[in-house]
Amino acid sequence: MDAERTYTELAQRARAALASVNASPGVAKPDPILLAENVRRNFGGVTAVDVQHLEVQRGSITALIGPNGAGKTTLFNLLTGFDTPDSGEWMFDSKNLKKVVAHKTASLGMVRTFQLTKSLTKLSVLENMKLGATHQVGEKWWNGLLPFRYRKQEAIIERRADELLKRFKLDHMRDQYAGTLSGGQRKLLEMARALMTHPRLVMLDEPMAGVNPALKQSLNEHIRGLRDDGMTVLFVEHDMDMVHDISDWVVVMAEGRIIAEGTPDQISSNPAVIEAYLGSHQGKSLLEEESA
Amino acid sequence: MDFIKIIENTISAFFGIDAAYFALAAIGLNIQFGYTGLLNFGQSAFMACGAYGLGMTSQYFGVGMWWGILIGLALVVILGLLVGIPTLRLRADYLAIVTIATAEIVRLVVRSVRFKEYFGGSDGINSFSTSFRNLSPFDPGAQYGVRPFQYSGYSLWTMIVGWSLVIIFSSLVYLLMKSPWGRVVKAIREDEDAVRSLGKNVYSYKMQSLIIGGVVGMFSGMIFALDRGSVQPDNYSRDVTFYVLTALVLGGVAKVSGSVVGPMIFWGLYVFSDNFLRELTKDRPFEIFGFGIIQKAQVGPVNYMLIGLGLMLLMTFRPQGIFGSKEEMALDGR
Fold first, then answer.
1. C-beta of residue B196 within 8 angstroms of C-beta of residue A110
2. What's the whole-number average pLDDT of chain B?
3. How close B135 gets to chain A, by Cα (Å)?
4. Residue span of the structural domain in which B85 resides
């Protein structure tokens, strides 16, 4: 599949940078946008996440895979401030995020989506999109009382929202309640809404969960499009075909640790990964994956 | 049975001062509960802040009544922060528990014997409304208007002020909910984490909503106090909060029109059934085939029972209220 695909200049650059990187867990990248060091989170006696070192290459699509319960979503929560680790440091664009609360990360340029889609069902699709824009004057209540103070900005935001809706093929649903969208459309809406924040790093938690195969193809294209627009993508996924298809780099987690890293080809032949999925669990978790 | 009288009283209740002060309280509650999803079961405490702010200023600080508005505002902000800081980070249920308890604490403190010299105990405060009365352009003794819209000069004055406030605050809420601010709070009502992930300080918005709603509730308490010419602790009990909530749900949650018309219909129905039952039992207990149904002394409690029954029927057959959108309701739980 790789052979037939043509890559944009940005994609080629990311791939070239990663080609020279050694495929070992916790390896340093030439130009990391996200960097985590000794991030550890315990839930009672269970260590959910224990990441020694992780770097995400700027401009790449990095996949985060691993069996259920490997700590992928917990790591997402920790990195985006939705949860606090027991120890560790992590930086976004060389800014330390340790003391940064969840809502601040978005204005820094780091946005996330959720495993269970969070479309705001009683707002229209357009309102959902407009909510995503940051630094809105009208979000101060005293300005909210004076429409002339935010009208101009609102028009700019609406134009951008319309562009994104068009790109994600949701423009025909513009004025419908988001609650009337299908599961797949909600995934698209959530991704489009995240883009309203002008992110540099987009973190997608299982973007393909519950999406039909036809829509998966177009979601794939959209994710590639993010990289081609200069954004970095980090995503959690179970669909191995998709991971192989679109990612430039794959990070594998198991039992809270990073056990392998590498290009998709290197990962699919890595014995540690196969063991994590099949070995220690005796195929159990893979079957769970299948039925999920 | 005097049907003309029942109907006249009912119509005048639609536009009466009770409906006005309920409407103000409901507008405030609608900001918190309707739009932001904050389960505030202590709106009566915010109303008490307004009433006592007004009452205490002239009684104890010896300054003009108008300072009462500022003091009321300060009390509302303090109360909002006190209630909000510990609970707004938690799930919605905790706010409900804390607000209902806070409202009771406020009521019990102001009616306590210990603080009688400040709050007047269960007698309340009575002498504060003179400067408001003096502003009235109407002759307080005279009757104005034609039946059923006939009011004394003073009632007419409080009604005009009350309904003007209703119009002002409902327009402000309308503007606010059309704005990006309104969009954020409506989004918070649905999913806090989604809003947080998009870079909004959810905690701060919830606090703003709680306090803004409290401020509108404060004006409700003031209008009520001015109309009665007295501040009494038991006027700010739990019942008030729940009747306001009932009136709001009747009108339709998260609709400006619902928060104004709901209280009008609530009082219309209340006065209608009260008057009707009184007329029914005026001369002798009402009986069907010799079986006693209701007598004079039971009118009050039975009326409350009917309100409860009405609310249950409403929730079963029209959960979105009169102005609420059925389409929006249907999106729940998907």
1. no
2. 89
3. 29
4. 3-235
Report d(CA B125, CA B230) in Å as an integer. Answer: 6
Structural domain spans, chain A: 9-119+199-291, 121-180
Inspect the interface and report whether the beta carbons of A145 and B175 lie closer than 8 Å.
Answer: yes
Per-residue pLDDT of A10-37, as tens digits, reads 788 888 888 888 888 888 888 899 999 9
Interface contact B201-A154, CB threshold 8 A: no
Instruction: State phi, psi for B140 to the nearest 5 degrees.
Output: -60, -25
Q: Which residues of A touch B176 (CB under 8 A)?
A: 141, 144-145
Assess contact for B79 and B214: CB atoms under 8 A. yes
CB contacts, 8 Å: A105 with chain B: 199
Residues 6+ apart with CB under 8 A from B35: B177, B182, B185, B186, B189, B209, B254
| A132 in contact with chain B, both atoms CB, cutoff 8 A | yes
Q: What is the pLDDT of residues B140-170, one digit of tens each?
A: 878 888 777 888 888 899 999 999 999 999 9
B303 domain residue, yes or no: no
Amino acid identity for residue B60 in this structure: Y
Query: Using N-to-C axis directions, what is the helix angle for B256-280 and B3-14, rounded to 10°?
Result: 160
Q: What's the rounded Cα separation, in Å, for the pair B183 and A12?
A: 40
A24 burial level (CB within 10 Å; 0-12, 13-18, 19+): exposed
**CA B200 to CA B257: how far, in whole Å?**
28
Tokens read off for A90:
């992590």
What does the pLDDT average to over A155-171? Answer: 94
Closest CA to A90 of A112, A75, A111, A107: A75
User: Is the residue at B196 inside a domain?
Assistant: yes
d(CA A40, CA B32): 38
How confident is the model over B238-250, as pLDDT tens digits? 889 999 998 999 9
What whole-number percentage of chain B has pLDDT above 90? 53
Task: Give residues with Cβ within 8 angstroms of A42, minimum separation 6.
Answer: A48, A86
Write out pLDDT tens, residues A104-159.
998 899 999 998 888 899 999 999 999 999 999 999 999 999 999 999 999 999 99
Whether A203 and A111 have beta carbons less than 8 Å apart is answered as yes
State how many domains chain B has.
1
> Cα B278 to chain center, whole Å?
25
CA distances from A243 to A3, B27, B178 (A): 16, 51, 42
Indicate the pLDDT class of residue B203, thresholds 50, 70 and 90: very high
- HEC profile of A40-86: EEEECCEEEEEEEEEEEECCCEEEEECCCCCCHHHHHHHHCCCCCCC
SS3 B41: coil
In a domain, B34, yes or no: yes
For chain B, say whether A103 makes contact (Cβ under 8 Å). Answer: yes
DSSP character string of B128-149: --HHHHHH--S-TTSEES-TTS
- Quick check: B333 contacting A, CB < 8 Å? no
Q: Which CATH code fits A9-119+199-291?
A: 3.40.50.300
Sign of torsion, CA A53 A56 A58 A60? positive
Identify whether B99 is part of a domain.
Answer: yes
pTM of the model: 0.90
